[in-house]
Amino acid sequence: MATTTLTADTIADTIKDNEIVLVDFWASWCGPCRMFGPVFEASSEQHPDIVHAKVDTEAEQQLAAELQISSIPTLMAFRDGVLVFNQAGALPAPSLEQVVTAVKELDMDEVRAKLAERQTQV
């Protein structure tokens, strides 16, 4: 499965309608982004069950600002609509594979319980 381009109009539904979504925030002028692009693309081929999406931060400046993207590339992972991973920097292929495995293995009932607990403490 190839990567999908997300915009402010499509990101919410994509995250809501898919179990796992990885989002690569990038820009064409960014050297590390260009290095990470093929790694991300290869992961999309290895894991067709996961949506691999890209957000061009130049074209989607408002969306990048809303999501507090201050450094690119930034990788976000969503599982069942919940942000479970957020890290700036280009990952090598083995590290990206570790992220994919960890996201797949998450106990989402436990994640939701911890989120609910955090909400009550605020």
From TrEMBL:
<keyword id="KW-1015">Disulfide bond</keyword>
<keyword id="KW-0249">Electron transport</keyword>
<keyword id="KW-0676">Redox-active center</keyword>
<dbReference type="InterPro" id="IPR005746">
    <property type="entry name" value="Thioredoxin"/>
</dbReference>
<dbReference type="InterPro" id="IPR036249">
    <property type="entry name" value="Thioredoxin-like_sf"/>
</dbReference>
<protein>
    <recommendedName>
        <fullName>Thioredoxin</fullName>
    </recommendedName>
</protein>
<keyword id="KW-0813">Transport</keyword>
<comment type="similarity">
    <text>Belongs to the thioredoxin family.</text>
</comment>
<dbReference type="InterPro" id="IPR013766">
    <property type="entry name" value="Thioredoxin_domain"/>
</dbReference>
<feature type="domain" description="Thioredoxin">
    <location>
        <begin position="1"/>
        <end position="105"/>
    </location>
</feature>
<dbReference type="InterPro" id="IPR017937">
    <property type="entry name" value="Thioredoxin_CS"/>
</dbReference>
<dbReference type="Pfam" id="PF00085">
    <property type="entry name" value="Thioredoxin"/>
</dbReference>
